């Protein structure tokens, strides 16, 4: 992966911003990493037949000149049927969750098994898992297990709500740092973050690109507390929560994200591939 730091305003190609104390008028840099467009199918898909059709339609609808990493997170039971029949390189698969060890853990998917059945990525700490009691400490262990299994962790976090005084930012920072407790400078480049504010997941509309950009800057500042600033700037940070075909472009242009983690838009091949095209064909 190559990075290019050039001053440029809002190119919509993974721009990111200098870390300033006051983020109201941030000065952006270009960050020439490929975007990642990921689809979290959650539990929307309920049969192998349906999953295979959706996958085929997505594959067919992707732009020929694909300049994005496209990743699908089907329910774990569908990883094997999808991955074993796919020899292409344009789409990768990820597990929606993994467990940090093998053994007596009913219902869990060990990281090594996810890898064995075709996953390259592991989504960890999604808001819907956190709502069932998953803590930052557990997320941290899962991130460590994913790295050990040579899966790329996509670590999700986000505030449940916002308050006027910005006190939610303190919790957000703590959650990020605790979720990455076992990540060191060397492994940071193998980690992807996904900022998904809980209040936007499943909502009719996402926040504006500007709102997302300010949070992206805050996340990088938080990372810079633990890692070197240059390393903090290189982390790919996705945005997820209510992105659809209509709202995607504005976020691409103004959000300074490294891609999207799509929920509902990923289970409609047309919406998913349209969003990939809006971003990835530039
Ligand atoms: P929606 O795009 O359906 O709001 O879901 C986002 C999400 O949770 C992706 O992980």
What would you say this structure looks like, in words?
With 282 residues, this protein is α/β, with parallel strands linked by helices. It has a single domain (35-42, 72-280), classed as TIM Barrel, CATH 3.20.20. 36% of the residues lie in helices and 16% in strands. The protein has eleven helices and eleven strands. The chain has helices spanning 48-61, 79-84, 111-116, 127-130, 136-148, 168-179, 185-188, 209-226, 229-234, 248-254, 269-280; strands spanning 6-7, 16-17, 28-30, 36-40, 69-73, 91-95, 121-124, 152-157, 192-195, 236-239, 259-262. An eight-stranded parallel sheet has the order 10-9-8-7-6-5-4-11. Strand 6 (91-95), helix 3 (111-116) and strand 7 (121-124) form a beta-alpha-beta unit. The longest helix is centred in the last third of the chain and has 18 residues, at 209-226. The two termini are 18 Å apart. Mean pLDDT is 90; it is low at 1-30. Residues 40, 126, 196, 201-202, 240-243, 261-265 line the site of 1,3-dihydroxyacetonephosphate.
């Amino acid at each position: 992966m190559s990075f290019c730091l050039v001053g440029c305003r809002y190119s919509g190609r993974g721009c990111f911003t200098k870390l300033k104390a006051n983020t109201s008028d941030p000065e952006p840099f270009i960050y020439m990493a490929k975007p990642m467009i990921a689809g979290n199918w959650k539990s929307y898909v309920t049969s192998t037949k349906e999953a295979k059709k959706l996958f085929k339609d997505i594959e067919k609808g992707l732009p020929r000149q694909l300049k994005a990493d496209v990743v699908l997170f089907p329910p774990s039971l569908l990883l094997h049927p999808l991955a074993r029949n796919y020899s292409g390189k344009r789409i990768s698969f990820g597990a929606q969750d993994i467990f940090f060890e093998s053994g007596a853990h009913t219902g869990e998917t060990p990281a090594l098994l996810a890898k064995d059945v075709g996953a390259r990525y592991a989504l960890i700490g999604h808001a819907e898992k956190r709502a069932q009691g998953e803590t930052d400490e557990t997320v941290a262990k899962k991130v460590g297990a994913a790295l050990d299994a040579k899966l790329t962790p996509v670590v999700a976090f986000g505030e449940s709500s916002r308050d006027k005084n910005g006190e939610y930012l303190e919790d957000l920072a703590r959650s990020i740092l605790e979720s990455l407790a076992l990540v060191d400078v060397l492994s940071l480049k193998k980690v992807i973050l996904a900022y998904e504010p809980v209040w936007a997941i499943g909502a009719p509309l996402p926040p504006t690109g500007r709102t997302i950009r300010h949070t992206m800057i805050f996340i990088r500042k938080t990372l810079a507390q633990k890692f070197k600033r240059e390393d903090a700037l290189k982390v790919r940070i996705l945005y997820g929560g209510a992105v659809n075909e209509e709202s995607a472009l504005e976020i691409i242009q103004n959000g300074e994200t490294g891609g999207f983690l799509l929920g509902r838009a990923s289970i409609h091949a047309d919406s998913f591939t349209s969003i990939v095209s809006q971003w990835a064909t530039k």
